[in-house]
Design a protein that fits this description.
This protein is of the alpha+beta class. The protein has three helices and six strands, in the order H-H-H-E-E-E-E-E-E. A hairpin with a 6-residue loop joins strand 4 and strand 5.
Length: 124
């Protein structure tokens, strides 16, 4: 009799576990994507996206200049007098990146061409 109670309790626990875990595995990526596009891009995620876009060499001393759900601006200081400004705008599953490369030589910001593209789109 005691063994039947233990077996019944075990089956009840397994049933509850299945009920709570199976729906989670069947959730669509669409809801996760929708959440990701509403979430602001952090510095950590921004640096990861910039590396993915090919701007890894420009990430020296990166910091967030401004951050909202619609746009994150990251300033970096590569090299001795370099200053780059990256604007990241989430669009669904993707992030549009606009890059402005510059130098602080002479005491003020001057745009320069470093041979990298000024805009890219990467998957978030």
């Amino acid at each position: 009799m005691k063994m039947k109670k233990v077996l019944g309790l075990f089956l009840a626990l397994v049933t509850v576990a299945v009920i709570f875990t199976v729906p989670a595995s069947f959730t669509s990526n669409q809801s996760n994507t929708a959440y990701a596009s509403r979430k602001a891009i952090s510095l950590k995620e921004g640096k990861k996206l910039l590396k993915k876009a090919g701007y890894g060499s420009e990430l020296g001393y990166a910091s967030i200049s401004s951050m909202t759900k619609k746009k994150t601006v990251i300033k970096t200081y590569p090299g001795a007098k370099g200053k780059d400004i990256f604007t990241l705008k989430p669009k669904g599953k993707h992030v549009k990146i606009h890059a402005t490369f510059g130098s602080l030589d002479g005491g003020h910001f001057t745009k320069i061409n470093v041979g990298l593209p000024h805009s890219r789109t990467v998957k978030r």
